[in-house]
Amino acid sequence: MMYFFGALALILLAAMAYVRFTPIAAHHATPRPPARGPGDYALDGGHYVVRALDCFDRDALNGAIAKTPRLTSLGDGVYLTRSRFWAFPDVTEIWEADGTLHIFSHLVYGRRDFGANRTRIEGWLSAAAS
C-alpha cells in the first residue's frame, strides 16, 4: 500500500513539474474564434471579448495588463499568464480589427478554466474603462 501512495505522489509531482516547467510559446495559442460583434462570449476553456475602440483608454489597458501577476509577454499582443498554485498556463491574444478591440484568452491544458480568463479580462477592461 505504501508503494501505491509513493507511486501516486511521484505521478502527481511529475504532472505538476510538466505543467509548471514546459515552455509555452505563442504557437500554443488556440486559433482565434470567428470575428463577432461587440460583446462577451464564453467559450469552452476560455473567454472572448469584443469592444469598440472608443470604450476604453489604451494606456490604462496596457497598464492593467502590465500589473497582472505571473504575466509574460510572448510578443505581438500575445501574453502568457500562469495560475498561482499549479502554474497552469493561459494564453491571451489581443488585437484590433474593424474599429474594435478583441481579447481572446484560453487555457493550454485541460477543459475548464473555472472563470479565470473571464475574470482577468473583466479586470483589465474595468481598469481601462473611459
Please write out the topology.
Elements: H1 2-21, E1 39-43, E2 46-52, H2 58-66, E3 71-75, E4 78-82, E5 89-97, E6 100-107, H3 116-128
What key phrases describe this protein's structure?
130 residues; alpha+beta; TATA-Binding Protein; 6-stranded antiparallel sheet; 3 helices; 30% strand
Description of the molecule:
This protein is of the alpha+beta class and 130 residues long. It contains three helices and six strands, in the order H-E-E-H-E-E-E-E-H. Strands 1-2-6-5-4-3 form a six-stranded antiparallel sheet, with helices on one face. The chain is elongated. It starts with a helix and ends with a helix.
Structure summary:
This protein has helices at residues 2-21, 58-66, 116-128, and strands at residues 39-43, 46-52, 71-75, 78-82, 89-97, 100-107. The chain is an alpha+beta fold.
